[in-house]
TrEMBL record:
The name this protein goes by in its record: Uracil phosphoribosyltransferase
TM segment ranges: 32-53
Native species: Flavobacterium faecale
Pfam families attached to this UniProt entry: DUF6341 (PF19868)
The organism's place on the tree of life at top rank: Bacteria
GO molecular function: glycosyltransferase activity
InterPro entries: DUF6341
Keyword entries, A-Z: Glycosyltransferase, Membrane, Transferase, Transmembrane, Transmembrane helix
Amino acid sequence: MKAFFEGIQYLFVNILFAPLDFLRSLELRTWFGANLINWVFMAICAAAMVYWIKQLRIFDEAGTENQDTTAHSFLK
């Protein structure tokens, strides 16, 4: 049973967390490079927000959005 948990430890520590260890060592050289994952996630979220707002504007201009307060049963 001990070998099973040591195998899990080896998988996570030496294989799956290796990219994160690289980013941690990269932090001493460049802060922006070490936070590359954060920048990518922020760019994805910004693109999703722009797309969402554009879709809201399309439905608002078409007049198909139901803004009545009774549109949902829990708002009655």
